[in-house]
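ok new one. same drill as before - structure tokens go in, u give me an amino acid for every spot. 470 of them this time. try not to just spam alanines like last time pls lmao
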């Protein structure tokens, strides 16, 4: 084989290259199963698994509310992909375009633009498309300027820091308007993310208030805005009603059948005419498919998800596979025809197993099997020692539901290492007091040095130094 322009001999192309787009639930679990099944072929170089992901870790999203509340360390909410997928090639970047006819994908990496080489073309034999989802925003005036998301560990920790900083501002100011706005927290969206995030942070802030001489728990105002007539529809009507009563019993203002009309100038204006000056607006009103899907040239549903068969192959497109948030998968266990599996972690983890097996079956010329899983139910936390659950037809509430919530997610978080660390943190949290420190400066690590450099030069900080929270 002739050497390339750098004088080196290129590596022989493996007979089976599998490209996995995304490092979330589906991407990580699919690649993990594939590397186990292809262990010998990977070792000999006869097969290759390439995982393209924007972040070098998988985020276990059900633990984000507890991370925001300080019950779990942020580093234990994420799983490092290079450690878990040690036989895969991990590429930190994003797929911008897929040419499935040529079986190539255009990948931009952290080095794109630095070395002038442009996007990297990656060829493949089989492709697993699992880029996940992004926040579904609406054209609400002011939302892009003042809204805070809750899909990543960075957003969860940033929100925790922000809430404590607002309490610092309220404690220090003499302006009652600033104080009231700082102590008003508005959450939009009554699904899992919104309810669990609000409940955990309200718990944390109420505890934190005891360390402020001029802030009482009753001074904090928490508002949940939900466009439909119920919250937590996943846990059933009865448990949703219980959760609603639990939140309102904690003096949380839950507004049903209500929308956010505008949040310009840090004033949340609701469809019922209410106006709330606030410095905190958390947007958790649903998700939408990743933008990559629209550019992939593959069949999509009306909602923008990949149209898949029960085998998790993209309909009518050989060698292309999808699952999780990106895929519309028929639910073979549903009583009524045409229903699709819910885009949640319960299905994603199980779909990844079937998907990996079917990719191998396709490579080896064996029959494919269909994905079939009856929905087991749902659990939700409402703060420390409080929760709701509807599992296999049984309803639980309060402490038993909260305990089930923790036990279930502990069993599902990947790797024994993470399970042990999370369990250790929960145990220690039960023995000692909550941590209430804010590390907001972590979000701007160069600010202090830029300020010092500006002062040392006899001038002002450089334009790159971020302003304080205002």
């Amino acid at each position: 084989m002739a050497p390339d322009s750098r004088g080196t001999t290129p590596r022989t192309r493996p007979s089976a290259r599998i490209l996995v787009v995304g490092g979330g639930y589906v991407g990580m679990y699919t690649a993990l199963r594939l590397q186990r099944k292809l262990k010998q072929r990977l070792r000999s170089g006869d097969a290759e698994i390439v995982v393209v992901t924007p972040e070098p870790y998988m985020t276990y999203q059900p633990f984000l509310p507890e991370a925001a509340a300080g019950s779990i360390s942020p580093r234990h909410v994420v799983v490092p992909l290079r450690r878990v997928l040690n036989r895969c090639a991990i590429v930190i970047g994003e797929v911008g375009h897929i040419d499935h006819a040529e079986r190539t994908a255009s990948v931009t990496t952290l080095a794109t633009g630095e070395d002038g080489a442009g996007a990297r073309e990656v060829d493949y034999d089989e492709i697993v498309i699992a880029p996940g989802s992004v926040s579904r925003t609406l054209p609400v005036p002011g939302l892009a300027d003042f809204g805070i998301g809750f899909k990543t560990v960075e957003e969860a920790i940033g929100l925790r820091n922000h809430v404590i900083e607002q309490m610092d501002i309220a404690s220090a100011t003499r302006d009652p308007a600033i104080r009231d706005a700082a102590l008003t927290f508005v959450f939009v969206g009554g699904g899992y993310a919104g309810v669990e995030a609000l409940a955990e942070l309200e718990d944390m802030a109420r505890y934190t208030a005891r360390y402020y001489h001029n802030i009482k728990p009753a001074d904090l105002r928490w508002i949940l805005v939900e466009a439909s007539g119920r919250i937590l529809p996943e846990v059933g009507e009865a448990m949703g009603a219980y959760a609603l009563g639990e939140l309102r019993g904690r003096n949380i203002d839950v507004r049903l059948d209500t929308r956010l009309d505008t949040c310009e100038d840090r004033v949340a204006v609701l469809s019922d005419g209410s106006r709330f000056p606030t410095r905190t607006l958390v947007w958790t009103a649903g998700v939408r498919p990743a933008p990559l899907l629209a550019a992939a040239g593959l069949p999509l549903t009306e909602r923008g998800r990949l149209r898949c068969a029960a085998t998790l192959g993209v309909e009518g497109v050989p060698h292309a596979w999808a699952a999780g948030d990106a895929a519309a998968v028929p639910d073979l266990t549903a009583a009524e025809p045409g229903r699709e599996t819910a885009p949640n972690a319960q299905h994603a983890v199980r779909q990844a197993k079937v998907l990996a097996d079917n990719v191998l079956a396709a490579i080896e010329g064996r029959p494919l099997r269909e994905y079939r899983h009856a929905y087991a139910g749902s659990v939700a936390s409402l703060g420390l020692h409080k929760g709701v659950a509807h599992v296999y037809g049984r309803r639980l509430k309060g402490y038993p539901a909260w305990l089930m919530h923790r036990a279930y997610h502990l069993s599902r978080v990947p790797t024994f290492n993470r399970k042990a660390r999370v369990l250790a943190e929960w145990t220690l949290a039960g023995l000692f007091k909550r941590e209430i420190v804010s590390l907001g400066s972590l979000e701007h690590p160069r600010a202090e040095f830029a300020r010092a450099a500006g002062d040392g030069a006899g001038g002002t900080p450089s334009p790159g130094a971020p302003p304080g929270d205002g």
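The longest strand covers residues 89-99. and btw The chain has two domains: 16-135+288-364, 143-285.
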